[in-house]
Amino acid sequence: MIYPATDFANDKPSHDLFAEGYMLTRTSIAWFTGNYLAGPADIADWRASPLRAASLARVAPAFVVTAGFDPLRDEGKAYAERLTEAGVATRHASYDGMIHGFFGMTGKIDTARLAIDEAGAALAAAFAAA
């Protein structure tokens, strides 16, 4: 999961800390939310906001990438923690100096290549274990 949106309440502290100036903005998140959900009632639906699920047991193993300057940082971290607490094999990789979208910036950001390599290794390990 690459900087996943896991709670459409969009109320975690990182949403306010990084609302402007870090690529993904409060306005763009509102646009995505409005186009993804049928209405406000869907925010609480675990299928849209898996962080709100009563249980995350039996969810697929996950490699969760978060970026330090990303509005989605806190919910991605919280999701990885909940998966771990539920006994799901989970690895959380936090790239503290990065912004949302860095994963695709391999031509400009060396850390992006590192993140892609780590994600690829996690995927290869998951396939090897299956």
What would you say this structure looks like, in words?
Helices cover 38% and strands 14% of the residues. By secondary structure, it is of the alpha+beta class. It has a single domain, classed as Alpha/Beta hydrolase fold, catalytic domain (Rossmann fold). A two-stranded parallel sheet has the order 1-2. Strand 1 (62-69), helix 3 and strand 2 form a beta-alpha-beta unit.
Distance between the termini: 18 Å
Say what oligomer this is: single chain
Unreliable residue runs: none
Give the C-alpha Rg: 15 Å
Molecular shape: globular
Question: Topology of this structure?
Answer:
Blueprint lengths: L12 H5 L8 H11 L25 E8 L3 H13 L4 E10 L10 H20 L1
Parallel strand pairs: 1-2
Protein traits:
alpha+beta; Rossmann fold
Short description:
By secondary structure, the protein is an alpha+beta fold. The chain has a single domain (13-129), classed as Rossmann fold (3-Layer(aba) Sandwich), CATH 3.40.50.
